[in-house]
User: Fold this.
Amino acid sequence: MSDEHRQYQSRAEARRAREAREAAMARRKRGRGAAVGIAIFIALAVVGGGGYFVFDKLRGDAAPDYASGEPGPEVVVVVNSGDTASQIGAQMAEMNVVASSAAFYEAAVQNPAMSSVQPGYYHLASHLPASEAVAALVDPASRVGSLVISEGRQLHDTRDVNTGAVKRGIYTLISEASCLPGASGDLDCVTVDELDAAGAGSDLAALGVPAWALDQVRVVPDRSRQLEGLIAAGSWDFDPAADATEILRGLVSGSAAKYEATGITTAGANVGLNPYEVLIAASLVERESLPADFGKVARVIVNRLAVPQKLEFDSTVNYALDTTELATTDQDRATVTPWNTYAKEGLPATPISSPSIAAVQAVETAPPGDWLYFVTIDAQGTTLFTRSYEEHLANSKLAVESGILRSGR
Assistant:
């Protein structure tokens, strides 16, 4: 075995492997079924026990299999929702992870952990004995390109004013999830800078931006923020061998489908907002309130826009500063930015975070109410709503007394 087989492939090699994998997948006849864990479990159960004996007799000669030894270059294999053990084995053979799909299938039958394999991307060595290939596939450490985006997460890193703690942004999370071992043994990752540059690109179709957001995204004043809110909160899988634009396109287009499932393309008409404005408003709801108050905060936004009256949300002040703080300073609130709703009327230029689906739905179905003001008065998140400015001042006094509205600067 040559030295090059002892080294991990570079990202370029991984991309070539991805192209080969895609070609292999195109040749496969896709089956339809339940989630992959269930599908594999059923497939294995069918050939278990006596069924396996019959299969073995019918098969005759032993299936071709690689001998134990030094593994070959590593590749990225994808498991799709609904894949059976046979379909996974076929791809494994196409990618030269195993010598034959039959050998993989036989090994899969004997490994009960196969029933827990989830859809996603897996980083595996090639030229493996089938039993080792199955063991590698079921090892959680082999999973790559998997990330969870929490509700209210922003594209870029943010810093807490009071503690100095840095909250990793979506681009940082994607970068970390994209890492593959490189040829030298070091990790090879899509960098935050590459993602930031790709996300600022002018070809919005290449980035997966949906038609209902195109016109407003085109005029975003800061290109590096144009995808804000368009990558939805939730669990995601992406091909870590892809480049930055391909990764973002998959996440943005997948997110658009999630948002569209809520009715975002039409539901905003109920509150006088277009789909992209619904997304912006939902991001404000996410950052300004707890789930129990989503509906009321959504109604405050709708009511203020209708008056019209400035929103005056501290979250929009923080957004342009890449900081987080419940209270902001007079100087910060006076700083004019396309997002600062103390300094401008209407909605901010873009969403200020990735809202939850619950926040989107809260805007689409904002409950009736005449509230124009709200303030959180304690660290537990107790929030008071009113239409009266005088009552709002009294409520704000409670917040000041509790220390919740005291800036850390």
The longest strand covers residues 72-79.
